[in-house]
Amino acid sequence: MQDIGLTAFDLGLRGAASGLFTMMVLVLIRLRPGNCQAVLGLAMSAGGAGFAVATAPFIPVSTFWWTLPILSAQPVVFWLWARAAFDDDFALKPWHGAVWLAVIILGFTASLSWPMWPVVTKICAKGLSVVAVAFSLLALMQTVTTWRDDLIARRRLLRMAVLVLNLSFIIFVAGPALLPIPGQVLGMAANTGGLGSFISALTLCTLAMLASWTLFGANAAAALPSPAMLAAAGADEPQGTHITAGERPAVAPLLLRRLDQLMTVERIYRREGLSIGGLAAELNVPEYRLRQAINEGLGYRNFNAFLNRYRLDDAKAALADPSQREVPVLTIAIDAGFQSIGPFNRAFKTATGMTPTEFRRQALAGGAEAPPDFENSAR
After folding, report:
1. Fewer CB within 10 A of the terminal residue: the chain, N end or C end?
2. For position 235, what pLDDT does the model report?
3. Which residues contact 189 (CB under 8 A, 6 or more apart)?
């Protein structure tokens, strides 16, 4: 009787999860999303709905093997989604697709070899489980490593949820329960339910609720905009674009003035290892208030992007200064607050479209065309 009740809860959770995932797919298709976060969210939602159904109790095991090649690559999709959601500078690259395709091929190998070559199936299944754990850990790393610099309160809460879900997925799902093999898996072997299946269903349902909260919440348009919505709302302005005093939310003007004083006059951005906690201590305000001021008052989503505005401006001035013609680019980068030349070069190229050396050459030569305006390109 207890098993029947557990299975009923299992099926209910899977039904709710697949319903939410399907609704998100339909909404995202309707929005015709133009950014990679929304596209990856669509792929993740479609895979989540498929996985919830294919691994449900009483669904024939053969159904899972038919869908295995696509479902096996969902951890890769989830990792890419986490990168797109939590890294404002992330862009999809061809090698991301190659990794996804390689996992798909491994899934096809596992599917086609069952039941003729069970040994091959077991090896591939273990390989897919390792892949699932590995990409879940990568998503965890993405969630944690950029957490400190995130200025968006809603997204910081989402990070906490993704952290908990990833840990649950690794512990309860990504092992043998991720790939049910007849006769082996925690009561899920014949898709007849059990504790492992229930935990999987609970994790899927929780993920679906969090994803739908993000999509359908009050700030969904900003998180997952379509090209039409961007054009209508003017939301395609680059992060950190200047916001006039009349447009700013209710952020204490005094705090913004003190912050501007620290950045433009005292040049605190040059301090080695400056963190948002250290800057909050300098201003003698709680960290959450400083986050709110930089995000809602100045329009920045990430603390490093905020610092880089001043650091790149500083570096551009030095590179354009004839008296510093012989100063190495590395010295200028370090003086501006960068820790090494690599991040400086990448940030500079992204902001200006030129390398520091090219910018210096053009600026000192009084090039026919002025360097790109920092205020419109670096943020």
Report:
1. N
2. 35
3. 61, 180, 181, 182, 183
Whose structure tokens read 């596209």? Answer: 39
Q: Residue 156 burial by CB count (10 A; 0-12/13-18/19+): exposed, middle or buried? A: middle
3-state secondary structure of 327: coil
Nearest-angstrom CA–CA distance, 167 and 249: 36
Cβ-based neighbours of 95, under 8 Å, separated by 6 or more:
none
Tokens of 144: 């944690």
pLDDT < 50 stretches in the chain: 1, 176-190, 218-249, 367-379
pLDDT at 229: 36
Of 68, 35, 12, 60, which Cα lies nearest the Cα of 224? Answer: 35
DSSP state of 239: T
Query: Could you give the angle at the alpha carbon of 53 between the alpha carbons of 48 and 59, nearest 5°?
Result: 150
- Measured CA to CA, the distance from residue 213 to residue 208 in angstroms comes to 8
pLDDT 10s digits, 189-248: 335 556 767 877 887 888 788 777 766 664 444 444 444 333 433 333 344 444 444 444
Residue 225, phi then psi, degrees to nearest 5: -80, 150
Distance CA 101, CA 69 (A): 10
| The token pair that represents 310 in the structure block | 């001043």
Give the model confidence (pLDDT) of 302-330 as tens digits: 999 999 999 999 999 999 999 998 999 99
> Between vectors from CA 87 to CA 213 and to CA 348, what angle results, nearest 5°?
150
Indicate whether this model's pTM tops 0.90: no
And the tokens for 171?
């512990």
d(CA 112, CA 120) in angstroms, rounded, equals 10
Going by C-alpha positions, the residue among 326, 348, 324, 349 that lies closest to residue 338 is 348
Tokens 């070069």 belong to: 345
